[in-house]
Amino acid sequence: MGIVIGDKVIIKDNVMIFQQVTFGSHGKKGLIKNYPTIEDGVKIYAGAKIIGGITIGKNAIIGANAVVNIDVPADCVAVGIPCKIIQKFG
């Protein structure tokens, strides 16, 4: 419910997306638009914003309301505005 997905976003298999998540480009006028790639097994919690030509690694977790504008490595947790990588697990 209320999920926004830009036209060139890549979302791979077994991704869990909660409500009010946005996937999009940077939105800057005159620049080439770049969209995120979401790898297998990612969990993205409510209200997160995933912006730009970044990659969210396999099995990563994106916390609620996080604003993600950097790559998130596989098996890591990202939280905050702007996001910070706080944990590696697995």
UniProtKB/TrEMBL annotation:
It comes from the Bacteria. Pfam families: Hexapep. InterPro entries: Hexapep, Trimer_LpxA-like_sf. SUPFAM superfamilies: Trimeric LpxA-like enzymes. PANTHER family: SERINE ACETYLTRANSFERASE. This is Serine acetyltransferase.
